[in-house]
Every structure is written in C-alpha cells, then in structure tokens.
Amino acid sequence: MYTLSVDIGGTFTDCVAIDEADGHVTTRKVPTTQDDLQRGVFAGVDQIASDLDLSTPALLSDVSRFVHATTQSSNAVIAGTGARTAVLTTRGFGDTLLIMRATGRVAGLSVFERHHYRNTQKPVPMVDERDIFEVSERVDYKGLVLVPLDDDEIRAIAKKIGAAGYEAVAVCFLFSHKNPTHEARTGEILREVLPDFYVSLSADVAPVIGEYERSATAMFNAYVGELIEGYLSRLEGSLGDRGLAQKLLIVQANGGVATTAQTVPIMTVESGPAAGVVGAARLAKQLGLPNVIATDVGGTTFKVAVIADGVWSYSRETVLNQYQLRLPMIDIASIGAGGGSIARIDSGRLRVGPRSAAADPGPACYGLGGTEPTVTDADVVLGYISPDRFLGGDMLLDPARAHSAIREHIAEPLFGGDALAAAAGVRRVVDSQMADLIRKTTLERGHDTRNFVMMAYGGAGPTHACSYGPESGCSEIIIPAVATVHSAFGAAMTDVRFSLRYSDPLVLPVPAETLEKFFADMDAQGRELLQNADISDANMTFHRWVEARYRRQVHTVRVAAPKFIDDAGIEMIAEAFHREYERLFGVGTGLTDAGIELINYGVDAVGQVQKHAPHRLEPQRGTLEPRLRRQAYCAVLGAMVDTPVYDGVSLGAGAAIDGPAVIEQPGTTIVLSTDQAALIDDFGHTHITGSDSKESDRHA
After folding, report:
1. Rg (CA), the chain
2. Which domains does the chain show, CATH number per domain?
3. What pTM value is reported for the model?
C-alpha cells in the first residue's frame, strides 16, 4: 500500500509516493499546467507509477491515502478569475469592505513598498458598491435580535442578484458570530432561490469578532468557492475512474487535511506551504530538533516559518490581495523571491523580484520563450546547475540563453558587460533579501536565530541556503532528502485537523464554567467532524487555546489553554499570557495592573494518522568520487574555481563532503561554498555547517 500526495505550485507540480511497508519514497516533479491543473497531477502520478513498475490504475488501487495541496485559490484571486460575487450585509454597513482597515493601503506589502507610501493605494475592489446589498436586520453585540429578518426582503434581493448575472453570494451580518440565525436563514433562502450559486456565510467561515475581516473572509470564500469545489469534485471523480477507492484529502491552511466535502474553499489558500511546515516539524521531531526555521524557495516565492519547541504558530491575520482575513492559518511570511524571480535594473540599482517568469514562459534557460534574466539563469551562469541534469534530466536547459539574458539586461547596463559579475550580483541580492526576511520573521516573534537550525527545501532552497542561511545567523542547515518535493512529502504526513473558533470578550476574572462551556461546545463540534472524516476516538486529540490582550490594547497574544477549565486553569491562562507577552516584547513590558481581556477561544481537533518509519540509507562505502569536475563560482573567493560535482543519489549514510562542491539531487542542487562542509545522515538528509565545526565533529 502507498500514501500518495500531490502539491501544485505556481511553477511545478510535485508528487510523492511513500511505500507503507518500508518507508521508501518515490518522487516526481513536473511543470504545472495552469490551463488544466489535472493534466499536471496525472502527469506526475503516471510517472510515479512508471517508476514503481505499475500502471496508474494499479498504483491508485493500492493507495490507502491520497492527499492534495493546491495554490488554485490564491492564483484565482491574483489573476481575478473567481466568480462574480454579490455581498449581503446589515443595513448601514455597506461600506465596510470598501473602507477596509486603516492599514489596508499597505497590508501585505514589503518594507520597501511601504516606504514609498505615496505610491501605495488600496487594492482594486473585489466588489464595489453596486455589488453590495443592504438588509434590514440587526443583532446586537450580545447576540440579541433588535430588528428581525424579513424573509420576503431576502427573496426579493435574491431574485435581483439572479437577474443581474452574479455567480456567488457572500453574507456577513453584524455580530453574526454571536448569533448566526439570521445568516443561516438567509443562506437557506438564497440556496432555494439561487440553487446554482455558491453561498458563503461569515458565521461559517470566520465566526470571530472583527466585522471587516469576517466580511472579507466570506467574500473571498464565495469568490473562489465554485472554482475550488468544481475542481476538487472533478479531480476526485477522475481519480475514482482511474482506480482510487479512498476519499481525496485536501490540505488546509491550518496544517491539517479534510475531505473534499468538509473543505472550506478559502482554507486551501497557501495549503502547499502549510504542508511544507508540517513536513519540517515532522522531520525536526525525527531528528530531535526543537527549534527550526523552515525556509521554502520555489519558483516564485520565498517562505519562512518558525517551529519553536516543536510547534508552529498561527498568524493573527491572513493578507490576501491586501485584504485582511480571519483564517486559522500557519504563520508563514513570504516575499516574491524564487528561482523564477526576474532581475532588473531600477534607477541604477539591481533588483530581483517580486515579478516572476513562473513556468510559462519561465527563465530564459528553459528555452520556452522567456527572455528576461531570472535567479535560475544566474545559477546556470555561475556553474551551479548542470543543464543536462535539471529535474533529473527530464528537462534540458540552454546555458547560452541564460548568459545572453544576464549579459543583455544586467551585465551591459551595470557591470561593464561582465556576465559572471552580474550573475553573482543577482544571487547576492536575492540571498540578502531572503536573509532579511528570516531575521525580520524571527525577531518579530521574539526568537534568536542562533538558537535555531535552518531547514531549506523547495526546488531552489538547497541551491541558495548555503548563502542565506549563515547570513541570517544560523550555524547549521539541513537539506531534507526529498527537499525538492518537501511540501508534497509534508502533505503525506499531515493529520486531519479542524480549527473551531469563538469570540466573546471577557475580562478576568470570569466564572470557570463560562469558559469551560465555550470549549466543551467546540470539543463536541470537533469530535463530530473527526468522526465524519473516519477518525477513531483513540486517534482524536483536542488542543485548546485563547487569544488575550491587556485591557485597552489592540493586538492579541495566543496561548494554550488547559484541557479542563477551573479556577486553577484560569490562573494558568493568565500566567501563560504574561510569559508569552514578555517573551515577545521584552521583560518588564507586561501591564499586569491593566487586567487581562480574553477575546477569542479555539479548539484544534486533530485526527492523528499513522506516521511511517523513514527509509534508512545504506552506509557510505569506498572513497567518494565526484561525477565530474567543472568551474563554478565561489562567493568566498569571488571567482570561478575547480569544483567537484557529486551524484547525491549515490551517496550513503556518513558521506562527508568539503566545499567548494555541488551535490546534485533529483530536482534540486545543493551548493557548498569553500568554508562549508556537508554530512549525509542515516535518512539521507544533508547537514551543512562551517568547515571548522564539521572538522571538530569528526574528531570528537
């Protein structure tokens, strides 16, 4: 039997099959087919089956678990290909989405972009005033009905929406998180009058305080709803036709999976990167590492997540197209920097990203029509990537096109025609941008990078980690054995997870039974969801948490809550909040006399799945011999040097390599500079440190 997982990225689609008998992993990486994502999925599955000497139907019939991560929802938002959406809201609050928050003008923008504030603006509205319909209903902050809902008014609005050519409807009434009855009844009427429309209710997708954020979340869910549900339904049908007997599982932004029937479309945003963090946490636990900085360099973006004491954190808000959403999403910071990021000259300065060549037309070296220089082109010019071994030899690169693009667009305007210096400059800029994001991400979360090990994955992560890792302050870098498809590997390891939430601002002290009822109700909801996902009671766990703040402050801090709330449990929450606040903002910053206000409450209901023992490598035997030697750029010496190139697949456990060197793995390349050394562990992961520390380890 096999666990099969697929992760669709902006440039490549990654596929992983894990043999449940011995943990052996088979991987494939194919170009993403944006016009029809299923083609890329089945291209990867077909290649996996071929590698296992199976037909695709035979492989799928032997699959016990098929897990899928996708970027389709975020791509639809960026490309503006979602459904034409109408919004229903409480009368008098029709401008909520248009006004946004005060930070809406700069939400999600880089520091550089924020510095040029005059050039910033609010995003192009996903809906405008013509798409917003106000409803004569009102619920107060306690959940009491002040103005009852008029069914006839809703029916009249529904008919108007149907006649106007809309395709989806989002509903967000004031304080619906306290009393969702008006939204629920509105949803019933809309589905009755408009049976072909996708209907999104804010109380279902974001049942927490924050009117604007709830509205935005419901709106985006409606915008991508039909697209995601239609795609997943078609994919599940196609897989079933080819032999899959199991339910298709979809990775969620919260780091868990759910069945297609249980998936909220907007929860698929950034599901691939979330799976990567899950995989990093799993690998860190296997290696006994409590603190890890997970870094993912793909074709279009660079992403960073922090795993502290074995646990990832959740973001306070999700920014999508400058809109601020309320989603239970793994805290992942990102910038537009990846293998496909385009280098350009801007006012006499070399800049890289955020614009990307993506998979089509791709970097110039792909030979698919791209002419602008990218990070991948620079890596080819610097001698790091073998043109005949890209994607394991499945894709041939054209180094002449890479040199031409770098020379024409970067070297001649800025480096006197020196293509090598220009390529080194591109790499230095993009690696510095990555290191800056790592430092910013860790410092803002109260962490010191010196206390962390870095994990680098994605197609371009291993190629650049030996530069951005030490620059960010990490002394050790780990390249996972399946780094190029690590997010797909993480998807295969992902548990079933549902994130239940509730809002009710309360100032401590409060009756313990009040809080316990909040959590007990969410426990019951989570248990029912897990049962519907075929999880046994023995494999269920429930993790409680609260978001609190000092009174009269704005921002909240999240801390764990005990399994049962009594007076002692409330004291534990207060103490945990004080500690976490001072860890984030410094000793003595806690306003202990201000009092603590609890805002949001949540339960993560987790259905644990079997984790297969990892496959072990055979020990390294004999003398290490490189596959070949070639000239490659050494950043330490600032020149091209004679560099051994090793075949990573042939390396055994215990193999040690001193830099400068290149290690070619299927789908990616590990680059070691002169002052670095690598050691392959028993599971095929590559550990990289400074040469001095590695030499000390060998003599210890």
Report:
1. 26
2. 81-224 (3.40.1360), 496-607 (no CATH)
3. 0.90
